[in-house]
Amino acid sequence: MLRDVRAGGDSAVRRYASLLDDADLDTLEVPEAELEAAWDDTPDDLKQALQLAARRITEFHEATLPRDWVDLSGGLGELVRPLERVGLYAPGGTAAYPSTVLMTAIPARVAGVSEVVLATPRRGQEPLNSTVLAAARIAGVDAVYQVGGVPAIGALAYGTETIRKVDKICGPGNVFVAYAKRMVQGQVDIDGVFGPTETILLADESANPVFCAADLIAQAEHDPMASAILVTDSQNLIYTVEAELDALERQGCIVLVDDFTEAIAVANHIAPEHLCLMVANPWAWAGQVRNAGGLFLGEFSPEVMGDYIAGPSHVMPTGGTARFSSALSVHHFLRTMPVVGLSLQRFTDLGAAAVRIAEAEGLPGHAGAVQARLDHIAAMQTR
């Protein structure tokens, strides 16, 4: 499919839309009239909730935005530049998540990305999810394309007559979308290849068992492969939580540890997507956490708030990849360029060392490029 889209452009995308989604597309871009209708169809209270979430997401990411820096005396600096064009993917059907549109588009916008587009599939002649389209409007998405699955990833990665090639693709999808993103990585950047969602809840005897059970059930609700794990040093908490967990039989487990230090060690070893600390003093333990996609502290910071409205992006590393990767943020949409602007004096101070290292590496041309300048400076000083 990726080869077909790369070679055939719009016609290949339309053919697969008909084959896979039973959608007969006159145009790949969603018409403005449909976007306006979707906005009008979205209830006012839902618009307000999405707008509140958007404000909090914006505020959080603005606070993390890196800046240019220059040290003229040292002749060094770093320039921060945004990507030019980002493509977002939003699944269709029952897995329609307007929150993910906000959580991916807004960090890109805050980073200064020039153009943000969204691809989401049309199923047959059914209307697109109005809430997803409303979220796209709130987040400042520039264009929405009514294509999905592997063809959408191919169109974003390679470009077609209608859909321009992007620099980065972000957003969740099924296993085919995940592998398509992996296959085009290198042609474009991607946010990651994500597996089933996961939460570890660390709780001591002070934790409210009803809250613990509710959070585990909420995590298991995502999909049949989602995992929800309670780790505690309290046998009494286990008894009370188990009574609430009939719905969690195959999607989670409860682990009893000797003490909370061991509980932290278990979490650091697993490196979960979400780590929740339901303990008497969660901030006192936060410093010992090394590996987690996101950290949620206390009974009133459940992971569900992170899904929707807390502020950080809910796109987080899964499957233990939190050991070496981070939650989606403005940093994923930025490039940094180191700057070297040495003064004559600084060059003179450093030049001899550069020549010596170049000689040690057997690169006389490199050594000569520096030595020629050193000789020129020496000659100027003897005049």
Automatic annotation (TrEMBL):
<protein>
    <submittedName>
        <fullName>Histidinol dehydrogenase</fullName>
    </submittedName>
</protein>
<dbReference type="InterPro" id="IPR012131">
    <property type="entry name" value="Hstdl_DH"/>
</dbReference>
<dbReference type="GO" id="GO:0051287">
    <property type="term" value="F:NAD binding"/>
</dbReference>
<dbReference type="GO" id="GO:0005829">
    <property type="term" value="C:cytosol"/>
</dbReference>
<keyword id="KW-0560">Oxidoreductase</keyword>
<dbReference type="GO" id="GO:0000105">
    <property type="term" value="P:L-histidine biosynthetic process"/>
</dbReference>
<keyword id="KW-0479">Metal-binding</keyword>
<dbReference type="Pfam" id="PF00815">
    <property type="entry name" value="Histidinol_dh"/>
</dbReference>
<dbReference type="GO" id="GO:0004399">
    <property type="term" value="F:histidinol dehydrogenase activity"/>
</dbReference>
<dbReference type="GO" id="GO:0046872">
    <property type="term" value="F:metal ion binding"/>
</dbReference>
<keyword id="KW-0862">Zinc</keyword>
<dbReference type="InterPro" id="IPR016161">
    <property type="entry name" value="Ald_DH/histidinol_DH"/>
</dbReference>
<comment type="similarity">
    <text>Belongs to the histidinol dehydrogenase family.</text>
</comment>
